[in-house]
Amino acid sequence: MCGINGFTFSDPGALRRMHAATSHRGPDDQGFFEVDGVSLAHNRLSIIDLSPGGHQPMSTKDGRYTIVFNGEIYNYRELKSDLEAIGEVFHSSSDTEVLLALFARHGEACLPMLNGIFAFGIWDRDEQRLTIARDHLGVKPLYYHWDGERLLFSSELKALLTHPIARELDREALGLYFRLLYVPGARTMIASVRKLLPGHVATVQRGEFSIRRFWQLREGEPFRRYSDAVSAVRDGVVRAVSRQLVSDRPLGVFLSGGVDSSAVLGVMRTLTTGPIKTFTVGYDTSIQPEKYNADADLAARTAKSLGCEHHAFLLTPAEAVAHLLDVARHMDEPIANHIQSSTFLLARLAKPHITVALGGDGGDELFGGYPRYWWSTQIDRMRRLPFVTNRHVMSFIVGTLLGKPNDLPKFLSQPGLERHLAFVAQKEDSIRRIVKPHVLQADVLRETFAPYFSEAWNDVTNQLMATDLSTWLPDESLVRSDKLTMASGLEERVPLLDPDLVSLSARIPSAWKLGNKKQGKRVFIDAMRPYLPPHILREEKRAWLSPMAKWIRGPLLPFMRDVLSPTFVEGTQDILDFEGLNKMLEDHVAVREYALNELWAAVTFQLWAKAIWKA
Predict the structure, then answer these.
(1) Is 170 left (phi over 0), alpha (psi -120 to 50) or beta?
(2) DSSP H or E segment with residue 294
(3) Where are the beta strands (DSSP E) in 163-269?
(4) Can you give the pLDDT at residue 26?
(5) Which residue has the higher pLDDT, 409 or 336?
(6) CA 183, CA 275: separation in Å to the nearest integer?
(7) Could you say which DSSP state residue 357 is in?
């Protein structure tokens, strides 16, 4: 993992300011490439080939192509063998050299050949063309600014803001953030900065800028036999974990109490010798400690059963608060997830022991782990009953029989776009209490998500999962993991998001994934059964719970009142309704309502405004 920066003009001082802004991403080495037409910089975190042979920026022998690359190409050895068979000569063991040689021979056509996580920029001297690309699932971030004449790009948004570009807020992104707690798609909160979407490549040449897609998840031909799907998943996970163990630095596992990271660890156990280092986080709290540390306790049991060297960290309220401004600074974008301090400090705990951590990210989106997927199928079944065509009948069933009166819009929603928004968006009435009226544009949600449903899949529930894979996963979950681990110069890998495994998962009928309301991912659990300890197999699906809602009513209350003051940071008074916010805070404290999501969205936005927007 590394940090990459570049632009299509010359300015040595500006390049080094960008480079300094991302220095935490690559503490092992640095390099610069500056010629007429392009400037490139690289912060190196050495993972594969620790020698100077992996130094970047790296150029081909003839000097035509020069690369800055962040990530790992897991199949680089196979690609290297193929290239050597046709006469290519290599001078290092670096995957960067392989990627550069592959691009020199095939151009953009090499991108579908890659199995890995990557963001890179390649300068073609002869064609005077700069190419930037981002991996299939968006594991590695890539931001850019195009002003119609010049392109700037970076691993982190804050590096682009070292240039004198406008910091005007994107008003549509603002509305998306408060409705979803993150900003999906190409937008960022800064109107002049965009994200290159996962599976996309962009070029700038002679003043023309264009973007193209090189990979897209398709539904595919469904499996016919359940046993075939189980075998394919098992083989796919083992191949993915095996690929991602390639490293010249120490590896470990970020371990939760769930099936996904436990499966990754179980497979890793069969592929390696010696103790594996595992890391988890819990909470130092007197409030329901058994509830908030159930995940950490399960992780400890799993680590012990597999003979691991386990490291656990307990987060205190004081530590959570002390690091939140740093978290906002590293995140670049406001993402209202209250476990961010946990991830940030977990990476800091792990860094003295390992440089690479494997995690279980993506299992829920691939194999139907979230309860909303199961509920969506139940809604469709219910709506097919002849007596459930009347709104009043549905209201009685949902409110009285199921005890979910607030979920009526979900049960009334049509499959596809409407159903997806009913489950993922925050309640409009609550959000309107904390922001000014102009913030929430009525049609921005539908416009943002409609493209993901423009072609209906035969399996509508799998399409919901695919939409999460394309939006929530890269723009909330993966960017959070990347930024908060790279803050400590630590790389997280995600074997379950191997592109081959992702494509395979889309061919598995959703009915084989969902199981029941209490435990989804049936096909995945059956596939991983030989690798999972018995106590994990008995567990119900649980979210990673934190006591933040409780802490807001106690030790975090002074912090909340300070941050939710209109004087905390300049510029947000026209966005947030501070009177409504503080009324909501007091109601939450008095247990008249539960408002963690709304309050944390506002707090996160305030911290981001101070750390990034107004910095």
Answers:
(1) beta
(2) helix 294-305
(3) 194-195, 200-205, 208-213, 251-254
(4) 87
(5) 336
(6) 40
(7) E
Residue in this structure with the two tokens 């900003």, named with its chain if needed: 183
Mention every residue, 6+ apart, whose C-beta is less than 8 A from residue 443: none
- State the pLDDT confidence band at 521, using cuts at 50, 70 and 90: very high
76 in Cβ contact with 97 (< 8 Å)? no
What does the pLDDT read at residue 388?
65
74-83 long-range Cβ contacts below 8 angstroms, 24+ apart: 74/115, 74/116, 74/243, 74/244, 74/246, 74/498, 75/114, 75/115, 75/116, 75/243, 76/48, 76/116, 77/246, 79/113, 79/114
Element (H, E) at 172: helix 171-180
Does residue 2 register a pLDDT over 90? no
Better pLDDT: 440 or 254: 254
- Report whether pLDDT(177) > 90: yes
Q: For residue 227, what are the contacts with CB-CB under 8 A and spacing of at least 6?
A: none
Contacts of 311-314 with CB under 8 Å at 24 or more apart are: 311/277, 311/278, 311/279, 311/280, 311/349, 311/350, 311/353, 312/279, 312/280, 312/281, 312/282, 313/279, 313/280, 313/281, 313/282, 313/345, 313/346, 313/349, 314/281, 314/282, 314/283, 314/284
DSSP annotation string for 582-608: HHHHHHHHTTS---HHHHHHHHHHHHH
- Give, in order, the Cα–Cα distances in Å from 305 to each of 295, 351, 399, 428, 536: 15, 24, 44, 46, 11
Question: And the tokens for 328?
Answer: 């906002």
More confident residue, 442 or 447: 447
- DSSP state string for 31-84: EEEEETTEEEEEEE---S--SGGG-SSEE-TTSSEEEEEEEEETTHHHHHHHHH
CA trace torsion 592, 596, 602, 603 (10° rounding): 110
pLDDT digits (tens, 9 = 90+) for 17-49: 999 999 999 878 889 999 999 999 999 877 766
Residues 225-251: tens digit of each pLDDT:
999 999 999 999 999 999 999 887 889
Residues 233 and 266: their CA atoms lie apart, in Å, by: 15
Q: In this structure, what are the phi and psi dihedrals at residue 353, rounded to the nearest 5 degrees?
A: -105, -35
Neighbours of 544 (CB within 10 A): 15
Q: What are phi and psi of 337, to 5 degrees?
A: -125, 120
